[in-house]
Amino acid sequence: QVHVVESGGGMVQAGGSLRLSCTASGYISYIAYMSWYRQAPGKEREFVSTIDVDGLTRYSDSVKGRFTRSRGNAKNTMLMQMDSLKPGDTAMYYCKISSGEWGQGTQVTVSS
Known about the structure:
Largest sheet: 6 strands, mixed
Number of strands: 10
Radius of gyration: 13 Å
Strand content: over 45%
Strand order of the largest sheet: 2-10-9-4-5-6
Distance between the termini: 41 Å
Helix content: under 10%
């Protein structure tokens, strides 16, 4: 069984920063990539960013230049640094790994 756990969410003012972490554990043979999605109230879940096993990253246009993906020190851990946060970034952020498992999400709230 595979577990995916997100952490690092919270409440900040516009212009502030947060760093999210995603850790996968359990029976994992190989993770090709780890992705972040987010879902705001009343909206569909949308892609935010991804990082693959070679460290290559991809971002949605809405966060490009403000969010940065990186690998954590622990095994199967990925980070996402979120800077210059806007109220429009308020959402539940979910991590998904390449084998299809999702985490439970971590809430990010940005006040104006």
